[in-house]
Amino acid sequence: MIRTPTAIGLVARREIVERVRERSLWISTGVTIAVLAGILVLPNALGFGGPTKGAVAAVGPQAQRVAALARAQEKGFDVALTARPAPDDATARRMVRDGDADVAVLSGARSLAAARGADDKVVGAVQAASQAARGGSLPPPLPVERAGGDDSDRQGIAFVAVVILYGQLLGYGFWVASGVVEEKSTRVIELLLSAITPRQLLAGKVIGIGVLGISQLLVIGLVGAVIGAATGQLDVTGDVVSAVGVVLAWFVLGFALYSCAFAVAGALVPRQEEIQSVTAPLTVLIVASFFLSFGALGDPNSGLARVLSFVPPSAPMVMPVRMIVGNAAAWQVLAAIAVTLAAAVALIALAARVYGAAVLRTGSRVSLRTVWRASAE
Predict the structure, then answer these.
(1) How far is CA 174 from the centre of its chain?
(2) Any idea what the Cα angle at residue 249 is, between residues 248 and 252, rounded to 5°?
(3) Helix or strand (DSSP H, E) at 58
(4) Which of 60, 139, 222, 324 could serve as a FRET partner for 211 with CA atoms 20 to 30 Å apart?
């Protein structure tokens, strides 16, 4: 038998080389990038969405005059503004922090408070109105203090991240299952297992396809960031960079959790036509986790979102949302990682045992119970 590190490396290399040669990899990468580019570019290019909406809080008569002037020149800035009076500066700042206003013109119209995620066109319209209200040749712009968070931007990043995670986990899981079935149907598996053990084969297959998945995610993330920056639709800030890191890290955890289960599912059937049915429970788990993550997107601190971010099947898609939006404490992230890793390790050990007993069974589909009993003998 070949030594374990060498055997795993050979299998992983074989998986990478074989998959890179397949057009499906390049087609899926191109389609994902095209969809991402469409999300970033098409709405504005086609004129969808109309003017940028914004709310302006105003404290006192002078500030309300600035807000009225800003509304009067909405068309010039392609914005649609709503003026909201505020009794004092503290209330106006709180409105900005809570997301009830994008910009606040503080008492005396001497300064502005703007949300960190406030659109530049909204801030620009208010600044232009303040200059017009003060008169003179070219009054300097008002000082702007930033308040609140950029939750809207973070939520948009989190939405794109979870959609990509969903597609990658499901797609690469199917790759693992189909690869196992392909080897069984062509009897290649018998040749492979004459030189290496089932555990080595499983580990190499999972690692090889996992490396491809990470590489594809990194390419998609970099190209998406370049397109967004080039078109002005995305500021490549620390939030974007950290979101890419979060997606990569949780893809590794999620893939470790699901890939062995897909490998076992593939080992139970002899033909490619049966993959859909045998992997249906795993598909349901991933799809359910995907839709449940939307609840975390809307309310990251809800009880359901907190619970789902610790449950292994849903953690790889719910916890990244909470991390990107910024509502997950450090101890919660570490606990979710620990629980997911523990579940992955247990599943890998279980999968290796079942996989070894099932992968050589050809001819007809076998049940998991039958394979489990055979592995115990």
Answers:
(1) 19
(2) 85
(3) strand 52-59
(4) 324
